[in-house]
Amino acid sequence: xxxxxxxxxxxIVLTNLLMLGSSRLGVYIRxxxxxxxxxxxxxxxxxxxxxxxxxxxxxxxxMVVKGLVFPxxxxxxxxxxxxRREMEPYVGFTASLLAGVAAWGFALWxxxxxxxxxxxxxxxxxxxxxxxxxxxxxxxxxxxxxxxxVLGYLVIENGVFTFGVAVEAATPFLVEMGILLDIFVGVFVxxxxxxxxxxxxxxxxxxxxxxxxxxx
Amino acid sequence: MLNAxxxxxxxxxxxxxxxxxxxxxxxxxxxxxxxxxGLTVRLWGGPAVADWGGWLQLDPAGxxxxxxxxxxxxxxxxxxxxxxxxxxRLYPAGHQAVFVGCLLVxxxxxxxxCLSQHLGLLWVAIEATTLASAPLIYFHxxxxxxxxxxxxxxxxxxxxxxxxxxxxxxxxxxxPIEGTLILADLVAGGGxxxxxxLKMAFVFFLVGYGTKVGLAPLHTWLPDAxxxxxxxxSCLLSGALLNNAFLGILRLRQVCGAAGLATFGQGSLIGxxxxxxxxxxxxxVGQTDFKRxxxxxxxxxxxxxxxGFGLGGLGTVGALFHAINxxxxxxxxxxxxxxxxxxxxxxxxxxxxxxxxLLPASGxxxxxxxxALTGAPPSGAFLSELMVAGAAFxxxxxxxxxxxxxxxxxxxxxxxxxxxxxAGGEPPAELAAKKPVESGLRVLPVGLLWLGIVTLGWYVPPxxxxxxxxxxxxxxx
Lengths: 216, 477
Hints:
The complex is a heterodimer of chains A (216) and B (477).
Chain A: H1 2-21, H2 25-42, H3 53-81, H4 93-113, H5 125-142, H6 146-166, H7 173-200
Helix pairs in contact in A: 1-2, 1-4, 1-5, 2-3, 2-6, 3-7, 4-5, 5-6, 6-7
Chain B: H1 2-18, H2 22-43, E1 50-51, E2 56-57, H3 60-85, H4 93-115, H5 119-137, H6 143-173, H7 183-188, H8 195-213, H9 222-228, H10 231-258, H11 266-284, H12 290-311, H13 314-344, H14 355-358, H15 360-373, H16 380-394, H17 398-423, H18 429-434, H19 444-458, H20 462-474
Antiparallel strand pairs in B: 1-2
Helix pairs in contact in B: 1-2, 1-4, 2-3, 2-4, 3-4, 3-10, 3-13, 3-19, 3-20, 4-5, 4-10, 5-6, 5-10, 6-8, 6-9, 8-10, 9-10, 9-12, 10-12, 10-13, 11-12, 11-17, 12-13, 12-16, 12-17, 13-15, 13-16, 13-19, 13-20, 15-17, 15-19, 16-17, 16-19
């Protein structure tokens, strides 16, 4: 099982690098969706044998929400807004990739120094989660496009989830569903807000640097 | 009983989304607020009730924050009915239905925050408060409110995502007791928790929920959201929600205390407290927008809470008491600010003059509220700030105490000028000619809040004293 787990973690790391190095919003959305699907398989890397029904249900819900619902919502948004690329990011794409590699190294270093109790099944787990969270935060601060920021939020959540799923944190089924519901509604509300932003303020093109009326 | 407390606002909230007749909507809002307050009062003094196998329980700390929330919601609802029938009467019913629905669901989520004894559930509840309140900020559908909503959503959601990571860390720390996240079990098994993971969890709780509390340097969304929201939403965001988010940090302090790490994180709380007060003072002096002024004052007061909790001992009691005073005072000022905004149609301090003449009751409350909130005696805030200062000197942090008193003075002076200038002087002639009438429903709840904060300066009822002591003991004061 460990092999599968590590393969999935490496897959998640690769999707992060893909997002850091690309300028196309479509790539971000697809990479985010793949990450979500990879994440839902993490649910099955726990104990051997046939998984519990509630784990199957959780994995299915995660897969549908992160792999299907969110990407289609976000694709609809970019079609409506007529933006395809991330223009003039605050940090260039090559520099972003380099920052990503550095962050991965740092995550490995920190992960190696944390005293891990038995629940953590792979040495790559903590670094992967940390790196994914870093990627999400980085996308939020280094890119201008509002959709990229929503994606950044999703990537952060994926990172947190990577951790939660694989340590089998004793979160009961109801709470896990609550967390998923919150994230779902959160993204939904963000997308609605984006629609409104796009409608109200025509010239913005989802560029968050234009959202600067409120300041001191 | 606890179920009713949750279900009443949740169900009426969902119903409200479907109602298209405004009088019914307003009645629903008022009826829910009254029954929620009634249920809360009935729970006072009773034994701590548990429900849902220990997931929901009303302990003294939850009781205190629930009471504040319920009281403020009642005031906001009374005010809100008049608000929706006045300025916003032309808004379509569907638009108002979403507003009332979100308001009631917001109450349900805040209630869940106060009741949660499972830290995973607590996270779900706190994130849900963000989602329920975001559409409220956007009520006026201006591009400014849109911007505020966007920042609120993104910054708070990201912050809270980090708190979820903290929650998972906590579960690892609790590995020896099967990773439970139920508060009572965590406190009971405090001795065997894994300290390094518990410390990491605390850091992430502080950053995550601290974003929602508006502690500097994580406060950047707060002035925008609180100033663009409609008056009663600002009142609830500032007076009720900030406290409730603080409960997330306090719950982990409880666990740290049980694990023998009571002093861990004290320094960060004191530091963030002082930083919040400093940042607030800098932006309050010379502020040109009176709602932003109030918003920065919230950052300042959350700083006072952080400082009090960080100092511990007398500081914990002081901080809890200050939470009540701040909520009453800030609620009253935000509601009054709504009246002024409606009378003058501007948030710019320099364009508002002569409130005492144009809107006599609001003008009076504006000045009285300012005095009460900034801690001029007789006000409950005076006592609670004194307690926090006392804790600083008592626990051997004289410089913290001096800095605290200095910052309070700067803020007092910084706020006095705009408040007095707005209240005094002559109102603009074209407004004076119109002679606006103040609706009783929009002054009465504000007046009662003022009465509350001033009464607390003279007399703290024994039941409240008892509750404060119990809550402080629970939170490791």
